[in-house]
Amino acid sequence: GAVTRNSRTTNRRATQPKTAVDSAKGKNKAENDGLWYKTAQVLARGLMLVRNVSFSYTRTQGMMLPNFQPEIGDFFGQSHATPLGRAPGWEFAFGLTDEHYLDKAAANGWLITNEEYSITPAIFNQAETFRMTALVEPIAGLRINLNADRQKTDRSDIYYMYDGSPKRFSGNFSMTTVGLLGGDADKAFGKFLSNREIIVTRLEEQYKYTSMNPSDGSGKAPVAENSSDVLIPSFLAAYTIGGDADRMSLDFFPSLMRLLPNWTISYDGLMRAPFMQAAFKSFALNHTYKSSYAVGAFNSFANWVDAGNGLGFVKNVTTDLYMPSSPYDVTAVSLTEAFDPLIGFNSTLQNNMTLKLAYKTSRNVNLNVSSYQIVEMSSTDITAGLGFRIDDFNKVLHLTKTGGEKFNNDLRVSADISFRKMQSLIRKIQDAVTQPVSGDQQTVIKCTADYTMSRMIIMQAYFDKQISTPLVSSTAYPMTKTSFGINVKISLGR
Questions:
Q1: The predicted structure's pLDDT at residue 24
Q2: CA distance 303 to 216
Q3: How far apart, in whole angstroms, are the C-alpha atoms of residue 367 and residue 332?
Q4: Residue 416: CB partners within 8 Å, gap ≥ 6?
Q5: Each residue's pLDDT tens digit, 164-192
Q6: What is the pLDDT of residue 38?
Q7: Bond from prior residue into 88 cis (ω within 30 degrees of 0)
Q8: CA distances for 215 relative to 173, 219, 261, 323, 462, angstroms
Q9: Cβ count within 10 A of residue 248
Q10: Cα–Cα nearest to 158, from 100, 95, 90, 92
Q11: What is the arithmetic mean of pLDDT over 246-250?
Q12: Is the pTM of this model over 0.85?
């Protein structure tokens, strides 16, 4: 055998002892390095503030053209019959058609225009959707999710079989915005009433340059203070953030420049504290805001006269005068907003007990143009809850384990109590008065206990109690509802 010995040589160098000046220099250098490092961390966090952003724009179009004469061919649906030519055309085959295609089809003689047999109009549909989402993390543990969307659908019905090809259109519209944010609703209504005078003045200035000379000798009427052209812009200026009656657009359908995002905020950074880690497995604060402006449905005026630049007139059958009006017949618009929740938290303690608390508010403001009213419905909700889980509950009861050797017969108990207040008001625009319509206060108690007997059977005991107290006694009366019982859930899935 052979024996090998590894030798290690250590080089030693004599060093001089550090002086007080050297120690101070080293300390300052360490402090400077730490300062630069912390500064770099702050800058890096600022650069990575926005973690991701996504945008999407979708536009879809559809067309239905009845009473089309040519037969459809086999190659891309194209017919080669003469004298009709190639029909329905390459633009139709590749989905590149719009309302101008109707003029081409009529010029080529492809349509049956006999009023006796063809009464179904040509229909053109278009839908536009814009969506944006973003995730922002300004500090560790704080996540802000932003989302915004704008949707508009249009439908045009063109009666090409009649002279002039009269056109009717309809659709709906919605977009996210930021509303009152819990502001004074009475003050907002007062601002809405005063905004009307400003909007009337602006519209009168626009219509001053339009010419209207009806052949029947009818005259022009001034801009009506309670017309939809005045009420809807006044409503948006009063009930949305940043609305200014002196400068904002008078369009019923705000552009993308007026699009505002909603948000969801969550924060779990408190778990970094040692005393929180000792008491909780998880603890998160949350806040959500949702708001949208919507035109539920709109149609066109049949007797609208175009005066150019989006302006026009509609003849009033009562006064026989032409009234300034947009082409849109809008009967109602609405603004909804909700803090869901305004502030809340969800937590799990070290002993697996869960605690939660949430304070929610919501408001729905509906402008009814035809009845000159604003209907407001608001609610507040405070909910507190707790729950816990007991593993192997059979051992606690000293019962034989069921469901198999590795199955956990757990017991889950939860209890929630909530206090709700709901009320509804009608604000009459012409009289400038507010009238309470309905409202009540509710206390709701819910308790459940779920016991897992096996993988197929779950037993549940429940208790629900609801106590309602009306705020307007003429519309309701105090009421209490109680329900309790036992449910058995059987799952037969493999």
A1: 53
A2: 14
A3: 5
A4: 383, 384, 385, 444, 445, 446, 447
A5: 888 899 999 999 999 977 678 889 999 99
A6: 67
A7: yes
A8: 36, 10, 49, 15, 75
A9: 18
A10: 100
A11: 91
A12: no
Please, what is the angle between helix 185-207 and helix 228-239, to 10°?
A: 140
Which amino acid makes up residue 419?
A: F
Torsion angle, alpha carbons of 352, 264, 377, 364, to 10? -150
- What is the SS3 assignment for the chain? CCCCCCCCCCCCCCCCCCCHHHHHHHHHHHHHHHHHHHHHHHHHHHHCCEEEEEEEEEEEEEEECCCECCCCCCCCCCECCCCCCCECCHHHHCCCCCCHHHHHHHHCCCECCCCCCCCCCEEEEEEEEEEEEEEECCCCCEEEEEEEEEEEEEEEEECCCCCCCCEEEEEEEEEECCCCCCCCHHHHHHHHHHHHHHHHHHHHHHHCCCCCCCCCCCCECCCCCCCHHHHHHHHHHHHCCCCCCCCCCCCCCCCHHHCCCEEEEEECHHHHCHHHHHHEEEEEEEEEEEEEEEEEEEEECCCEEEEECCEEEEEECCCCEEEECCCEEECEEEEEEEEEEEEEEEEEECCCCEEEEEEEEEEEEEEECCCCEEEEEEEEEEEEEEEEEECCHHHHCCCCCCCCCCCCCCEEEEEEEEEEEEEEEEEECCCCEEEEEEEEEEEEEEEEEEEECCCCEEEEEEEEEEEEEECCCCCCCCEEEEEEEEEEEECCCC
Report CA 108 to chain centroid distance, whole Å: 46
Structure tokens at 136: 């922002």
Q: Minimal CA–CA distance to 129: which of 55, 59, 176?
A: 59
Q: Is the dihedral of CA 249, 255, 258, 264 positive or negative?
A: positive
Please tell me the predicted confidence (pLDDT) of residue 330. Answer: 93
Backbone angles phi, psi at 417, to 5 degrees: -135, 135
Of 234, 245, 241, nearest to 183 (Cα)?
241
Q: Which long-range contacts (CB under 8 A, 24 or more apart) does 241-247 make?
A: 241/177, 241/178, 241/179, 241/181, 242/178, 245/195, 245/198, 245/199, 246/198, 246/202
* Beta pairing partners, 376: 365, 425
- To which residue do tokens 């175009």 refer? 306
Helix residue spans in 392-481 (DSSP H): 393-396
For 141-167, the pLDDT digits (tens) are 899 999 999 999 999 999 888 888 888
The Cα–Cα gap between 494 and 475 comes to 52
Using CB atoms within 10 Å of the CB of residue 317, give its burial: 0 to 12 exposed, 13 to 18 middle, 19+ buried.
exposed
The helix or strand, by DSSP H or E, that contains position 137, with its residue range, turns out to be none
Q: Give the separation between CA 256 and CA 383, rounded to whole angstroms.
A: 37
